[in-house]
Give the backbone structure.
Amino acid sequence: MEKFELIEKNPASEGFRLGLKLHELRTKAVASRTLRSEARPFLKEMSDRCNEAVGFAVAADGGILRLDRVDSPHTVIAVRTTVGARFPARCSAIGRVVLAYLREDEVKADPLKRMV
């Protein structure tokens, strides 16, 4: 894995950490998703109309996967999660919106996930 730059030695801890090649592969994987490219014009239009940042995410493996984001120069306060990042649904507005439209059995029994 080190040979292919998927991991690298961490000089501070003498252990290993994820390599930059993994970051590059993740970025390419997210960018190549058809859903993202199809949604982009709508995100841009929505951002232009409301003068705010607009995000696009999907439910994935018990959390939310950020597929895209269009920033606006008019946004005063913004939290910019990385495109390709995965995070718990309850930790963001976009995640709570996704949770609100899931069936009860999809939300599961975790009470923190039910806080919408």
About this structure: The first strand starts at residue 7 and ends at 9. The two ends are 41 Å apart (CA to CA).
